[in-house]
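Lecture 7 notes: from sequence to structure.
We start with the chain below.
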Amino acid sequence: MTTVDRVLRRWRESKVRPYLHAGAHVLDIGCGDGSLFRQFRGLFATGVGIDPALEHSVKESTYRLIPGAFPENLQDDAAFNVISLLAVLEHIPRSHQPRFAQSIADRLTKRGHLIVTVPSPRVDAILDVLRRLRLIHGMALEQHYGFPADRTPQVFAAAGLKLVRWHRFQLGFNNLFVFQKP
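Predicted structure tokens for the same chain:
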């Protein structure tokens, strides 16, 4: 991971910060190396991260990381106040998105928040250039499936989640969506 990758990741992770509180139970889908939990240690009660790229489980005092895909590899039935999905939805094939969204809604507590970031499809060309220049690692860009960010509200509305915020950031190349479970 390059310095640019880390800066972009921390910028995305900062969008979760307003929804964290001392009693929060957080699920980070596509957690990578657990950076979100390290960055905001002390601002939540417990955290669970899941990522197919993890090679082994990690257990820390306030969070644990699980190798595998969501929802099939998250074995417990815990509910979460905050679920983050940062730069992940565009990697989920369209045919899997309804079940994926419903699984997220099922794990979210009443009045809990889902924080989603989705890049604009036009950013793929820019990221490809940055990858060729070796300024970013560009993990899994080939898996973006051309997902249009403006389709995100439909994906989660179908699972019963209410969109409460949508705005662009990172110079308009990324989108933040915040949903709440009624």
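Points to note: Residues 3-13 form the longest helix (11 residues). The chain has one domain: 3-180.
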